[in-house]
């Protein structure tokens, strides 16, 4: 057993002791930790930017937009509303129980485990932490070993800024993650793929631990002939090729009528050139594939159709150009699994009915994007498909709306977070009923039962529901 794995039980015990002693419960502690987390992200932003550049060739501006600044915005939003969100919520009491008062209160669940992926290693580790701290929990953070520079930065900086009694970072790979999952947690928050998600869920069953699974899948895009294709292509190319396509909510493939597919492919070619220049390999704004295994997997998808643009690759640099494929069969390699890289297939459909059938034939996606000016098309997509989110006219941007829950459905995930939903994800909503001993109106239902009490039970008490 590795040294890091060996100390995991002691780490978990120490955090539980701190939680049981009430260290994390005061509002002042929660707000102080959120402030400290914000300071870490702003004061040490350059270190995180350097780490993200080393791990993913991520441009510092993109790191600010999608990683560091994203979490800072989440902190500011949660901090602004936290006192109001924590207030008890009054609930009406049925007449049969009056006089009485009922309410719900949020209490922290306890000790939380957050397991993050490599593609957004700052955002997807620390955004859940914001909700867990706001809810008053102790937290173990497990950064991805596939983003080693960012993982090392987290291990170094988190203990410097946050309360070591209640927040810990555990680095490592499969052995350390396995050791973590063997412990008892009060909530596990996992972001990643479905295969590991099943392992996490199976481990959680041992202690009946609630689990939030933020997974992924093939997020489709439907485009019809009612939209400006140049503007549509810019939006799709931006959402698809940021972070070299390694984004869980990136457009995975496009469904378009044949009359639209060709012109859209040409517009996407222009959009890629506008975003990344004639040679994206020279662009400081375009990332790289995280490792050789992912590079080889993605390379195998490049033959799934006719290349409209891109296709160039360099194994030594783990570079794959932004690639758009046309005439892609529905059973092509790129359509058999989540792409999670800079390969964008365009699949032709006969019409909207055909597109909806195809979407519904697969797993429910994490996101579904629609580019149309027709209200009837939007209505049918909303009512005839199921997905974690729907974006009309823009991909991926729903993550930036703090009031929208972010999460999947079915194979794309279970549970949601961001904003107030994060607070509730990491809290238990406790029911509270208070009824004075006098007057004792409950004597109407105490034994011995009489004919009058029977009439009461068959009448007024039925309103309890």
TrEMBL record:
Q: Which UniProt keywords apply?
A: NAD, Oxidoreductase
| Residue ranges occupied by any Aldehyde dehydrogenase domain in the UniProt entry | 11-432
Q: Which PROSITE patterns match?
A: ALDEHYDE_DEHYDR_CYS, ALDEHYDE_DEHYDR_GLU
Q: Name one GO cellular component term.
A: cytoplasm
- GO molecular function terms attached to this record: aldehyde dehydrogenase (NAD+) activity
Q: What residues make up the catalytic site?
A: 214, 248
InterPro entries in the cross-refs = Ald_DH/histidinol_DH (IPR016161), Ald_DH_C (IPR016163), Ald_DH_CS_CYS (IPR016160), Ald_DH_CS_GLU (IPR029510), Ald_DH_N (IPR016162), Aldehyde_DH_dom (IPR015590), Aldehyde_DH_NAD(P) (IPR012394)
Question: In the UniProt record, does the keyword NAD occur?
Answer: yes
* Highest rank taxon of the organism: Bacteria
User: CDD domains in the record, alphabetically?
Assistant: ALDH_F3-13-14_CALDH-like
- Which Pfam families would you find in this protein's record? Aldedh
Per the UniProt entry, what is one GO biological process? Answer: aldehyde metabolic process
Record bears the keyword Oxidoreductase: yes
Per the record, the similarity remark reads: Belongs to the aldehyde dehydrogenase family.
Q: What is this protein called?
A: Aldehyde dehydrogenase
What organism is the protein native to? Leifsonia sp. NPDC080035
